[in-house]
# Entry
Amino acid sequence: MAGVVVQRVERAELSVIDELAEYGVATVHEAQGRTGLLAASMRPIYPRARIAGSALTISAPPGDNWMIHVAIEQLQAGDILVLAPTSPCTDGYFGDLLATSAMARGCRGLVIDAGVRDVRDLTEMGFPVWSKAVFAQGTVKATLGSVNVPVVCANALINPGDVIVADDDGVCVVERARAAEVAQKSRERAANEESKRKRLADGELGLDIYGMRPKLEAMGLKYV
Amino acid sequence: MAGVVVQRVERAELSVIDELAEYGVATVHEAQGRTGLLAASMRPIYPRARIAGSALTISAPPGDNWMIHVAIEQLQAGDILVLAPTSPCTDGYFGDLLATSAMARGCRGLVIDAGVRDVRDLTEMGFPVWSKAVFAQGTVKATLGSVNVPVVCANALINPGDVIVADDDGVCVVERARAAEVAQKSRERAANEESKRKRLADGELGLDIYGMRPKLEAMGLKYV
Amino acid sequence: MAGVVVQRVERAELSVIDELAEYGVATVHEAQGRTGLLAASMRPIYPRARIAGSALTISAPPGDNWMIHVAIEQLQAGDILVLAPTSPCTDGYFGDLLATSAMARGCRGLVIDAGVRDVRDLTEMGFPVWSKAVFAQGTVKATLGSVNVPVVCANALINPGDVIVADDDGVCVVERARAAEVAQKSRERAANEESKRKRLADGELGLDIYGMRPKLEAMGLKYV
Amino acid sequence: MAGVVVQRVERAELSVIDELAEYGVATVHEAQGRTGLLAASMRPIYPRARIAGSALTISAPPGDNWMIHVAIEQLQAGDILVLAPTSPCTDGYFGDLLATSAMARGCRGLVIDAGVRDVRDLTEMGFPVWSKAVFAQGTVKATLGSVNVPVVCANALINPGDVIVADDDGVCVVERARAAEVAQKSRERAANEESKRKRLADGELGLDIYGMRPKLEAMGLKYV
Amino acid sequence: MAGVVVQRVERAELSVIDELAEYGVATVHEAQGRTGLLAASMRPIYPRARIAGSALTISAPPGDNWMIHVAIEQLQAGDILVLAPTSPCTDGYFGDLLATSAMARGCRGLVIDAGVRDVRDLTEMGFPVWSKAVFAQGTVKATLGSVNVPVVCANALINPGDVIVADDDGVCVVERARAAEVAQKSRERAANEESKRKRLADGELGLDIYGMRPKLEAMGLKYV
Amino acid sequence: MAGVVVQRVERAELSVIDELAEYGVATVHEAQGRTGLLAASMRPIYPRARIAGSALTISAPPGDNWMIHVAIEQLQAGDILVLAPTSPCTDGYFGDLLATSAMARGCRGLVIDAGVRDVRDLTEMGFPVWSKAVFAQGTVKATLGSVNVPVVCANALINPGDVIVADDDGVCVVERARAAEVAQKSRERAANEESKRKRLADGELGLDIYGMRPKLEAMGLKYV
# Structure
């Protein structure tokens, strides 16, 4: 099944994608009904990055980064590379040269269920990566994989063109067809949170704001 | 046994607590005879924070953060929230809204043997957290737990009102009744370390300062 | 076999060592044919450090840091302490007092397949450490180990006097006798990468620069 | 998206399924081009079981096994229950009562990316389970999930009606539509292996049987 | 605080303890309101053992098994040794010689949050152990710990004289004072399960036996 | 450095090797001064095997088992295959066909810091394996490694011809040149243990047999 590059991929609208980036992973994840999170093992190489983009997926053999070169040619501005190895691997698939090339094509970051390296350089370049490992062990260019096919990455199914949101809390995938709806729900949720934040900062209690006391009492909570 | 909120909890004196914060986890842990450390899996969400405070304990069901709302009402200035789930869990129990509410009540931080989220916001707010995971997966409000009961958190027994010390080296609990004594021993230890630091910085060797050479020789250490 | 301190150890030339530090772990590792990497579990306590030095090896019992005191006396300017426990251990073997002493002797850093503590102080002092854990649990001084014997540290064999290179990507060991040759190969590799970086930044593709298209086509890669 | 039970699911033919069970996971996995393996964390609760069946999938909330009761009503003879929690969880979702009920409906086993309990009873009943944990911590019945929707279980995408093969080597999923083809390829592979086994048992070398010597020589293998 | 042997410990009645053994960990854990489970990392060295006994607790330094010798003198028939190291450790604290000695005193097994060795011999002797590791690395006899003090073992608080129940599902602790009450609740639960088991084996559905259909319908479960 | 097959390897005498197998890993490990243990992650695929043999080492690329075919030609009766991958890997390098071939050459087992598969067949054939994973994911035959070179396997340095001892407690390596001496010390140790076992089975205490009481008293152990 390996050895295929799908060139035509529908993407969500950039305005929707950029709005999802503003809300961040925790809000988007809640807004779409608690689905789409990648495994907690996916961690950013440096703090404070928050991005969203269209998934350009890569299915790669363990320890072989050849398909990343192939994928870079398919990049459009606003894309995020998403690499899933076909077998567990912590090798460093990606470093500063590939990042230079990807950035030249408008790529916003990398999500990889494997390792990266040159992280000092990547940090200085401002190229954000979410990975399960940082490891200097390099890779070969010997075996074919595929580009823009559905992949299971860090336990989540990702289709090419799905929207990826990533920040310090992790990585979340939003189905392309639902992106506008999820942005709408995230917007409502964020507005609601903002008004709550003000009341909480004034010392009002969540117990009262959320009307929790009757239910807690009904369930038998005792104050002693 | 769940469903209890203990409202009256004795705390240690704030001056003692603040002094313990100065010494930090490694010194306090040594000073109380190498006891009280939480498991090494408890890591800070951002570096350089160092706090101490009175434990306000929460026993919470897995994936359910309802009791945090209940606990916030019980907070006094100088407290630290300590949450132990009743079953292993990496969900994100706590985010920026709860932190806003806790800070409004004088809370100094959170120690949680589970996950947190919104860590970019928490970092900007300067609300320190020690957790075993960062994960955007949220929680429900469906089941009762308890507040201010003894908990086992990251392999350590913590009673309400015990003193928590936390920094980059991890988290340590000091029994409330022993807090003043441990502060005293930490003070002596710190003073002793300061004088050693100067001699070591001058190039004097630990082998000589600590008088180790005769014992090493007696045990048969050979220089070749 | 424990209880031996080897005092005479050959080191590589400092000019060679310093040049290896410039290239960093990923480049050096590739340049010597993808050998010498320590396990990915070895992580820096703070980002952006990049050092190289001569390995001063320590074989230590679990939870016993006595031999570090012995090792510090053997330090020469440009050395890196390399500690391998004889059994898995996450205790904090090393803190700011030992770092003060080691720095006074010209030590450049520590590589330890166990834990460290006082990492806030170590960070402020600028003493870099690569470890598998940060943990405040201290150690005793009760049992002999050895200094400057071959050790297996984080899955790599390290001989006293071998060159250690460490940065954000991990830790790599270069055999002392091969250091000049590896520096030469790293230099060539770095020069080559620099010219590639410019072409990639201009948007040229790796597919073309590396002449990959014919081979991919021969292997059957299909664009659809 | 939760709260759906799909009742009409196409299954592969039982004769094909049973043949796949004979070949086992390693052979089936190779025969379908090295795809479909679940993560190595999925381990059998007792050794020597080898089964195949149609996937009846369950998407369940963490720590909530309500949907298993719903799923059991949908079981047909020859099915295997496949449960993926919507968040990482090691609770014991399944015990001997549920197994009694499932066996009464012709269920062949359970594949669960979470925990099970009562494993002594399950072993005596001969009900095979592949899970990532064994843990007595039970679950609640409070939240809806779904039955017979696509799930990502232990890093593999499984659609309802896909064929599951499981033995001591792990768990493999075969797409329903490809089951007959994969059985055919497995049959050829197994026959080929049988003839090789005889030659190898007679002491003939793989180097000669597989004609490896010229290629090894060409690649530069040196015998010293 | 180390260096104490408490000689007088109250135990629960043997008839109660033996009854708890019959029900096993999953039932006892539910019967006492889902509390008392040790971490899932505690695994039996051989399958099918099921025991209950009074906890004789040992707080031991990492890699030092001296206190086990001290503890064995305190054993009474029906006791279970429970060892918690004061720092994480996988060394093999316990082997066939210690088991011989413990069995001669009527000990029923060992629960240890560390490693054991000689497991082939222990299996042949029928001495059951629940541990987090099997490892041949031995220990020393150099430092004091304590016997019959409260310990935190695998994330659970265990007091001397508490009842330990252990089987293939893990290990559970029952507070001594609650043992008779928990046995009573376990008895009711087991009787109830037995009647359910018969109905389930006849093909009746949990959906009907537990009256789940109305609630599922109310929550919006859709059959499609 | 890859691509070398060393054909001439000195082995220890078979009578010495066979005697080491009798004593087992825990005794041999103690007898040689607590050195030589492989990491605790190395576990047997079935219980109760106990073997010793000469190490025939294999350095293999991740996910590539070609060198095992090359190694099998070098096997002599009494050898044990020892495979260390050059990068972390859990793929199933070895199955029943390779075992058939290895057994035909007199091989006694396999020690592999990676995965194996076909474990049901390997168990039925009685071919013992110690591995860090069981996983059906197969490997390719594309890249050269080396045979009979020094390897670091599961954190231990193993030279070709060293003696490997393996049982339920793990795996231990004995340097070839020390094999006879270690067998002698193991013999003494085993005899000593046998006499102790009798006294302990009669209820005598280790406290008395080993004369521990005065030292415990001197260290301040208090009985309360």
User: Anything to note?
Assistant: Chain D touches chain F through 37 residues (CB under 8 Å). The radius of gyration of chain D is 20 Å.
